[in-house]
Amino acid sequence: MPSRQRSVAIAAVAVLLAGALAHPGSASAAAHDNDITLAAGQTALVRFQLTGEQMFTDLLTEGADIAARPRTTAGVVQADLVVKGAELAALTARGATAVQVIPTVDPAQLRRGKQRVAADTLQFLQAYWWTSKGTTFLQTQVATTATDDPDVEITVTWTTADGRTGSVPLMRFVDAGEYQYHWALPVKLPAQPVSVVATSSLGGRSRQITPGAWPGAAPPPKPSGYQQDFIDAYMTPTDITARIKRLKRQYPALVDVLDLPHATQGYRRTAVGYLGDPAVAAVVVETIRYGAENQNGIQVRTVDPGQPNRALTLAYRDRVLTVSLATDAAGKTTSSTTEVADAINARFPDRFRAFAEDGSAGLPMPVAGPVRLDDGLKGTEVPARPWTVQALRIGKVRDGSKIGVLAYSQEHAREWATPLVTLEFAERLLANYATDPATAELLDSVDVFIIPTVNPDGANYAFNDFNFQRKNLSNHCTGTARDPRNRDSWGVDVNRNYAVGSLFDGYVGASTNCLSGTYAGTGELSEPESSNVVALAESHPNIKYSLNVHSYGGYFMWSPGAYKAAGRVTLPRPSIDEAKYFQDSARRIVGAIAAERGTVTWPSYTGPVADVLYSAAGNFADHLYYDLGITAWNFEVGNDLWNDAANRWEGVGFQPPFPEAHGESQEYAAGLVELIRIARDKEASGS
Length: 687
Fold this sequence. Notes:
This protein is of the alpha+beta class and 687 residues long.
């Protein structure tokens, strides 16, 4: 133990000693064994009878290895110390009497399995059952007090009303080095379970409990003639813009279109090309301006001047950059790749940037080209200009006097199904306003804001160039990270770019590497996409609820969404009342989702982001919840599907076949409608 820690321990034990002496115990001292001895190198835990309080105080001061709180009986002081043979002899010489060698398990016996370890204590954290599409499932979480034992095994045994029974082995879950619980994926059961009990390999046994029904809530039935199913295909940002315009034309009394203040980069990139052969030696040449700004098609070449003793020179004429290489006295070219790149940067800093391709630095520059620079973008029907992100504002009263709810989607470009959810939600509210009194009552009471695509640039790239694009199109990379071979890794993760619990605050789950999928950007709110969400919320303080639609996996989550690695310290937890409100509301929304086609979001996937998914530093929910006081939730649409033939859960992905994406749009739109009811109920309660 370090000296400072030992001092603290000594002080603490001294306080305990004072209390022990003031309130003597009633137990009698153990019989003395004056024959206790230890070999010189042997260590043991020994109980001593001391000569008095002063001797114990002296031992504290000397830093003795005191193992337990001192015991006092009838004025006799006893203390347990870890001592070696020489220390035992020294204490005996000072008047202490060895009373007992306290038994200690031999590690060798443990390794041979000859020592029985005491039973642990088990506690159910979750035990829920549900029926989906005619099949019953059970999911449990159990915690053990043997948190440091990586080998403890836990089994849950279930029983149905007719006496059938079975067992489920659980898996140990450790996050950021900290034990959380044991759990398992939902398991198929023949019928509703009436009891479960957990046992461990250490001999522990939980109380037998009755699993609860999940989610235990259902929305009101839809009236006859209720209109839904307005989604018939995946939608690009251009399609979404057209849909927004149509809704404004069709429902002028209920809809405003808001242009958000921060235009994005647009579907644009700089023009770039390899001058030379990357497999041998090459320089990457890139335009400063975007390719769409008349930079695509510029040519770059290197030439041999054909004369001796020539200096390296550059000329740009008629959209051709010509690099005339230096030569020696024999007329041989002598310029290196590094020299060519440096010369381009120095001569034309406002037009080009260049660097030696990774692995090519300092190599002889070949005569090469001409190469045409190009932005590499394949989307011929996408506007090449900054993009104005738009939001729908829906409601009968849109002056800020009604409680506001914000729903938004496609922060991550590859999540194609998410705008389908928010647009189906918008269409249901608008189409049913005139015919369904319940819908009319909602839109008379609530001010609804919807951003169908937060990240249109990334979405355009995902639809046209690289379907797994997660980030936006900002390229903050420098040096060789700008090599065009990395084009599918550029961009900022919009959902790591917010300003609470961020990477820049020391929380984990984001990256400073510009090529990482969770790159946080150059600073908090460095990107227009995240800044638009915050600006909308800040400019409309009546927004008290938000829900961000992501995919995939079937999660329903809230704050805290991030923790610091050391000790897994999360952002502050919601109050007890808030936590209950989050959970109760989640049950309502999960129930509304399940009512559409039987899809059930698992109880283990319902809860704070940091607990049910991972730490996501700089995410949207934490910013809106902690900074703006908004009750913020997150969907991950696209629940795993049960394959009965294979007896397993199967994932659906970011871009499932459209029939699955359509199903997701219908069920999660129903969840958003339930969110509006929750906001309405909260406002009506006045709490």
